[in-house]
Design goal:
- This protein is mainly β and 463 residues long.
- The strands form 6 sheets. Strands 1, 2, 3, 6, 7, 8, 9, 12 and 16 form a 9-stranded antiparallel sheet that branches. Strands 17, 20, 24, 25 and 26 form a 5-stranded antiparallel sheet that branches. Strands 18, 19, 21, 22 and 23 form a 5-stranded antiparallel sheet that branches.
- The protein is built from 4 helices and 26 strands.
- Strand 4 and strand 5 form a beta hairpin.
- The chain folds into 2 domains: 248 residues, no CATH class; 153 residues, Sandwich (Immunoglobulin-like), CATH 2.60.40.150.
- It is 8% helix and 41% strand.
Length: 463
């Protein structure tokens, strides 16, 4: 073959591979972490890192990020000089189009670079805390964390978040749950050290629809449901628009908060459900007739009751431990009260329950998070104090010998384990590098409240 012919052939092959999407895209450039020094990061004395955070960009404009949550927990210690409460931390694997928000110092775990997001719990209510596996859209302050060189980038704090997870919904008037994604949306302008107006713009993002549970037939079809389930703080209702209109795969959300009010004290929240409800084309025929092909997933309604917490290691050798502790089942978090003065061997009653629905091919999980408190009374009383970042000798003592990690529990149940029905007495696992294994035992039990067979063959079997 002539050289010109070979060149033409190679060019044609390259073009064909490009059209087919085989060519490898160039990696997105990461932010050089040393740029934090030019933006104002500097390490002060042991008692004080000032500033603690600086914006990555001089404009300090809010940035949007999207991705998947890999870890969600409360941090066991924060600098009391520039915090009014503990941060809720959640790690996110960013979508490809947002990789450029990463610093080259952001950690890589299991081959994926992670970004940590932080919002003080005083301003971030448990109803909206994320769960590992959530899809997340968020908007907030893009910063370098000056306290942890080399300097990582974070969204810290967010001012708007939307967490989406699979969570079936029993809509009013229906006898079968719909297969839905739930989205928990929270918008607030306060965070501790930083304030931002929130009611001066609209917020827009997409919520993915779950796959249709079955193929439409002459007897039954999937009906799209896109509903606002609740507005915990009132205010405008989000506008939900399925897209594309002829065969939706997602729902576009517009939260209309361009109200012209710059007050950072305002807060808004919404719980959304988007997904598929089975509808009969011929009401005289039963829904989910197995003769018409594969049916939708079956569902179970479960009730999880947290019974008690036994303290095995209080983490305070000279006095009683002062624990702050939360437990979660499904999407619901509970704070466990009465832990301000605990010793090894103590058992604290919880007696908190939550009910939720899981598809037969789905899962649910139990999680705990918390810390043992030695110096939380040192936290700044106001945001103005946190902004001043004035550290004392007592604050330094907190940083050097402060709060303790406690063990953690994270357990997932599926149909293969019968969704955990029955009683459990689970021992905590190690939390990080600290000696926290077997710190506590959590006792809880799981009941089946209702079972929903493949849609409509028979009414739900109440248990």
């Amino acid at each position: 073959m002539q050289k010109k012919s070979i060149s033409r052939a190679l060019l044609a092959l390259a073009l064909a591979l490009t059209v087919a999407g085989v060519t490898h895209s160039q990696p997105v450039p990461l932010v050089n972490n040393t740029g934090a020094l030019a933006r104002g990061c500097r390490t002060g004395t042991l008692a004080r890192i000032d500033p603690q955070w600086v914006s990555v960009e001089a404009s300090d404009r809010p940035r949007v990020a999207e991705g998947t949550v890999t870890l969600s927990k409360v941090t066991h210690e924060d600098n009391p000089a520039n915090h009014t409460s503990h941060d809720w931390n959640f790690d996110v694997v960013l979508d490809p189009s947002y990789q450029g928000l990463h610093s080259d110092a952001n950690p890589v775990e299991d081959g994926q670079r992670q970004m940590e997001m932080e919002w003080e719990t005083r301003y971030f209510p448990p109803q909206f805390w994320p769960v590992a596996g959530d899809r997340v859209w968020l908007m907030g302050r893009w910063i370098f964390d000056c306290g942890h060189p080399p300097y990582r980038t974070e969204i810290h704090p967010p001012k708007a978040v939307a967490f989406t997870r699979l969570e079936p919904t029993l809509f009013p008037g229906q006898t079968m749950p719909a297969l839905t994604n739930r989205t928990y949306v929270y918008v607030h302008g306060r965070s501790g050290y930083y304030r931002s107006p929130v009611a001066t713009q609209n917020y827009e993002f997409d919520v993915p629809l779950p796959p249709k549970p079955f193929v439409d037939t002459p007897l039954r079809r999937n009906e799209l449901r896109a509903e606002v389930l609740s507005l915990p703080f009132g205010g405008p209702r989000p506008i939900l628009t399925p897209q594309p209109a002829n065969n939706p795969t997602r729902v576009h959300v517009v939260y209309p908060l361009a109200l012209g009010n710059p007050d950072p004290n305002l807060r808004f929240g919404a719980v959304l459900a988007v997904g598929w409800q089975e509808v009969a084309r011929r009401p005289a025929l039963p829904l989910g007739d197995l003769r018409q092909g594969s049916g939708p997933p079956r569902f179970r309604q479960l009730r999880v009751t947290f019974d008690s917490l036994k303290i095995n290691e209080d983490h305070d050798p000279l006095a009683s431990g002062e624990w702050n502790f939360w437990v979660r089942a499904g999407s619901t978090w509970f704070e466990v009260r009465g832990l301000g003065d605990v010793d090894d061997g103590d058992t604290i009653q919880i007696r908190q329950s939550t009910t939720f629905i899981v598809p037969e091919n789905g899962s649910w999980s139990v999680q705990t998070t918390g810390w043992e408190d030695d110096c939380d009374d040192r936290f700044s009383d106001s945001e103005a104090e946190a902004e001043r970042n004035d550290a004392s000798l007592a604050d330094l003592q907190c940083l050097l010998d402060g709060n303790d990690r406690i063990g953690t529990l994270n357990r997932t149940y599926t149909s293969s384990s019968n969704f955990g029905l029955g009683a459990h007495d689970d021992t905590s696992a190690r939390n990080g590098d600290s000696d926290t294994q077997r710190d506590f035992n959590l006792r809880y039990h799981v009941e089946e409240v209702a079972r929903y067979p493949q849609a409509g063959i028979q009414p739900p079997v109440n248990r």
